[in-house]
Amino acid sequence: MSITVWRQWLVLGLFALAPVHNSGAAGIPDIIGTWKANVSIQTPPGFGDFLDLFSFSGGGVLAESHPLYSPYHPLGTILYAPGLGSWRSEPNGGYVARFILPMQGAPDNQNYAGQFIGTNTIDYTLTLDSTGTLLSGAWTATGRDVNGNITLSANGTMSATRVEVR
After folding, report:
1. Which residues pair with 140 in a beta bridge?
2. How far is residue 69's CA from residue 153's CA, in Å, rounded to a whole number?
3. Domains of the chain
4. Are 64 and 160 a contacting pair, CB within 8 Å?
5. Closest C-alpha among 148, 141, 74 to residue 101
6. Tens digits of pLDDT across the chain (166 residues)
7. pTM of the full structure
8. Residues 6 or more apart from 144 whose CB is under 8 A from it?
């Protein structure tokens, strides 16, 4: 068997072992998979909703991506990197998640253009509906500068649907 054919069989075997999104106990859906979310900011007031994408992997790994540019930070305009974090199920049937976003001064930031200026830590409390197709919850965010000082506090809600292959 050639190396190319062997690699193809290896990749197919790995896909066959990958968990499906409804791999919860006794066929109960879980949050493993990718979700398209509408995120609402309640505090501070005056901000619009935005799109966020989440991927929950087996073993508790979380990857997150949303628009990178933000003109609304107390330190001026910033760029967020995609968030990385973790999640776990709770005894009550819900989920908790945390991810961290590195922050950098945007090119038009008068004081911090191109500089690393801190992190934003987002904590979620989540609930999955009984069909396994709607994920919703509340979040809190704490932004910190490079010295650990709080620069931003926010909270809100989110509602997400699965990204499915059609």
Report:
1. 123, 155
2. 18
3. 22-162 (2.40.128.120)
4. no
5. 141
6. 444 333 333 333 333 333 333 445 555 579 999 999 999 999 988 888 999 999 999 999 999 999 899 888 889 999 999 999 999 999 988 999 999 999 999 999 999 999 999 999 999 999 999 999 999 999 999 999 999 999 999 999 999 999 999 8
7. 0.81
8. 118, 119, 120, 121, 150, 151
